[in-house]
Amino acid sequence: MSMEIFGVDIGGSGIKGAPVDLERGDLAQERHKVLTPQPATPDGVAGCVVEVVEHFGWDGPVGVTFPGVVTGGVTRTAANMDKAWIGVDTASLLSARLGGRPVTVLNDADAAGVAEMTYGAGRGRSGTVILLTLGTGIGSALFTDGHLVPNSELGHLELKGHDAETRASVKAKEDGDLTWGHWAHRVQKYLAHVEMLFSPDLFIIGGGVSRKPEKFLPLIEGIRAEIVPAELQNNAGIVGAAMAARGGTP
Ligand code: BGC
């Protein structure tokens, strides 16, 4: 029997969602996307989440990702979002705006990670696995024998006196007009630092760049762990959000 739950991915530029087929770990219908309002306040974004969910006439449980720390449904940080999110009970806010439907909220990289561990590049992998999403910021999901340690926030490690995501994210590559080689060197330094701390068996690299792994993965040297691109690419967040909503609050 196929089981569907709705997943929504809140990002700095877009809010996208679709019903997810949890048997296949894929979208059950083509996703719907709306642009993130600027400023991306809780109220404005909540309206967009409602729009995405209602586009499908969905009335069951909803899982939602957020690009910051989330504990017990409360958004705690907002590095690349409006600071008004800090301290908001986002799960309750969205549930109220969605007419009382149950809503589960989790970190965006954690969502992508649980999806990859079940349906993608981390399938069947034990030991320590770290998924890193390289995008506007750097998100992380840390697993030990398939169990998630939520909100690891490895994107904010210090790298040469800087917040790591300001050096090694895709935004840093674009803002600095860096060549693939230059950027790969920074990613290598970053991975070496994460490896020093956690000695993972596997790194999974997600985010938009996971579609062009040949541009930078061959340039990365001296990392002991295996490094592979994510497989679910830009639907991982939506799928992981739906998985979290099925399982209850992580
Ligand atoms: C946030 C993380 C998030 C990552 C990717 C970082 O700036 O602190 O919570 O997972 O960006 O969106």
Which key phrases capture this entry?
Nucleotidyltransferase, domain 5; six-stranded mixed beta sheet; 7 helices; globular; binds beta-D-glucopyranose; ROK; Polyphosphate glucokinase
Structure description:
The protein has helices at 42-55, 90-97, 108-119, 165-168, 170-175, 180-198, 236-247, and strands at residues 4-10, 14-21, 26-27, 32-35, 62-66, 70-71, 74-75, 88-89, 103-107, 128-134, 138-144, 147-149, 158-159, 162-163, 202-206, 226-229. Helix content is 30%, strand content 27%. The chain contains 7 helices and 16 strands. The model has no long low-confidence stretch (mean pLDDT 96). The chain has 250 residues and is of the alpha/beta class. The strands form 4 sheets. Strands 1, 2, 3, 4, 5 and 9 form a 6-stranded mixed β-sheet that branches. A 5-stranded mixed β-sheet has the order 12-11-10-15-16, covered by helices on one side. α1 packs across α2 (90-97). The protein is globular. A hairpin with a 3-residue loop joins β10 and β11. The protein folds into 2 domains: 4-110 and 235-247, ATPase, nucleotide binding domain (Nucleotidyltransferase, domain 5, 2-Layer Sandwich), CATH 3.30.420; 124-230, 2-Layer Sandwich (Nucleotidyltransferase, domain 5), CATH 3.30.420.40. Bound molecules: beta-D-glucopyranose (BGC). This is Polyphosphate glucokinase. Pfam families: ROK (PF00480). Belongs to the ROK (NagC/XylR) family.
